[in-house]
Write a structure and sequence with these properties.
The chain has 3 helices and 5 strands; from the N terminus they run H-E-E-E-H-E-E-H. By secondary structure, it is of the alpha+beta class. Bound molecules: zinc ion. Residues 3, 6, 8-9, 48, 99 line the site of zinc ion.
Length: 137
Amino acid sequence: MKEKNCIFCKITDREIPSRIIFENDLNIAFLDISPISKGHTIVIPKTHYSNLEDIPDYELAELHKVVKQLSIRIHQKLKIDGYNILQNNFVAAGQVIKHFHVHIIPRTYDDEKFRIKIPRTQTSEEELNNIFKVLKF
Ligand SMILES: [Zn+2]
């Protein structure tokens, strides 16, 4: 299933040109045209799913096999020091294109591209217990 005005569906259908570095029956991966770093790659399912909650488990698992395979290749071929796997869900989390996608972002020790500085706060035992009760299965 495709979404009419989705740029990633258009890439899948070759309506928009891209540098596709991998393709199988379910997924494609292509170079990000506005890369954070050299080799920044996007992996998507060929079927339009909006986000993590939308993609079926089987297809999610198959996509992550591709993410792993490509990450190893990018690591070896580009001689980088590491990489980030980034996947945003919903606008509040920075999702811009509403077609499920995973970023592979190559990193080097000195790249200064972006540093993930997650602000941590102290919380109380009571607050932790309250959220624990809400989330525990
Ligand atoms: Zn799409």
